[in-house]
Every structure is written in structure tokens, then in C-alpha cells.
Amino acid sequence: MPTKLLEKGTASGARGPGAGGRNRFGRGEGAVPSGQAPAARAHTAVMGLAFALAAIAMLFVAFTMTYLGHRQEGDWKPVPLPGILWLDTAILLASSAAVEWARRRLGSGDPRGLRWGLTAAGTLGVAFLAGQLLAWRQLADQGVYLASHPHSSFFYLLTGTHGVHLLGGLIALGAILPGAWRGAYSPARSTAVTLVAIYWHFLTGLWLYVFAILLWQ
């Protein structure tokens, strides 16, 4: 019996920590150490966001090239831009500032500042979209619709596409807001907040670009 037990122990030892390329913690030899896993996930998320932003930027560049091409046509008519778009621009800039303030407060270890900054940014984002809808309503009251002429079509296309992406930003903001109120984020756990802030700043810059194109009639 002792001989059999020794033989079993030897066989078990041969299949022990190094068997099958697995260690005593159940990870493969090539597995990412637990301390590096969050960093790897954060890097993947940042790269994914970078590709998404590049795709959005290329989409709007394509819109712009088509827009500028149609400007040379004889049926081009200027669209009277609603004055509320100026207020909307100020609202979105304030929203971007609130997101940045929230991000920096998190970096300083101030969860209360994070909560209120993100809440303010989301509220201002909703106000921006409401202003966009009001601008569309004002144009419709003047008889300017999507299919009225090429310029009106591009106005609705550019502002509408930007609005859809901003709505996506609001959804992302809404996804991290409960965690901010629960105190789930910290300077060492801030990737989600940073990604949302980058996306929000990108949309703010994109709106300034779109607004400048629309002003240049």
C-alpha cells in the first residue's frame, strides 16, 4: 500500500504545477497576470474608442466634401440658421467643461465632485438635444424641410447625425453615472470616466466644426 501511494504521489507530482502549461492558480503559462489584466483591458478600450472616433471623423469629412461640392450647384439656397444654435453651442461647451471638471475631481480623489460634474454634463447634454429639436421646429415653421433643397438636406443630415452620436454619449454617461453615485470610481479605477470624457470632448469639437460649416454659406 505505501508503495502504491508513493507511485500515485509521484504521478500526481508529474502532473502538478507545470502540467498542461497551468500553474497552481489555474492560469495558463501565457495568461496575463492579475495585476496587468485591468491595464490590458483599459488599453483595449482606448484603442477601440480611437478607432470609433476615427470612423466618425471620416464620416463627417465625407459629408463635408459632398456639402462643399453641392455648394457649386445653381439650386443652392442658404438656410436661415436659428439663433438658438448659438445658445446650443454655449450649452455644449459648458457640458464639456463639466465633464472635464468631473474627470479632474476624480483624479483628485473627490467622488462628490465627480458625481455632480457628470450629472451637470448629462443635464446640459439633454438641453443641447432639446435645443436641436427646437431649431428643427423653427426651420419647419419657416417651410424649410429635409427635402426642400440641398442646403436644408445637409443641415438636417449634419445636425441629425451629430445628435445621434451625442445621444450615444448620453447613454454612455448614463451608464457610468450610477457607479459615480455609488462611489465605484477612484483615481486608480477611472478608465470608464476617462473614455466618456474623451468621447464627449470629441463631440464638442465635432459640433464646433459642423457649426462653422453651416455658418459658412
TrEMBL record:
Pfam families: COX3 (PF00510). It is found in: Cell membrane; Membrane. The chain crosses the membrane at residues 44-63, 83-102, 114-134, 154-180, 192-216. PANTHER family: CYTOCHROME C OXIDASE (PTHR11403:SF10), CYTOCHROME C OXIDASE SUBUNIT III (PTHR11403). One of its GO terms (molecular function) is cytochrome-c oxidase activity. It is a multi-pass membrane protein. It comes from the Bacteria. GO terms for cellular component: plasma membrane. Residues 29-217 form the Heme-copper oxidase subunit III family profile domain. The keyword Transmembrane helix applies. One of its GO terms (biological process) is aerobic electron transport chain. Keywords: Membrane, Transmembrane, Transmembrane helix. Belongs to the cytochrome c oxidase subunit 3 family. This is Heme-copper oxidase subunit III family profile domain-containing protein. Residues 1-36 are annotated as: Disordered.
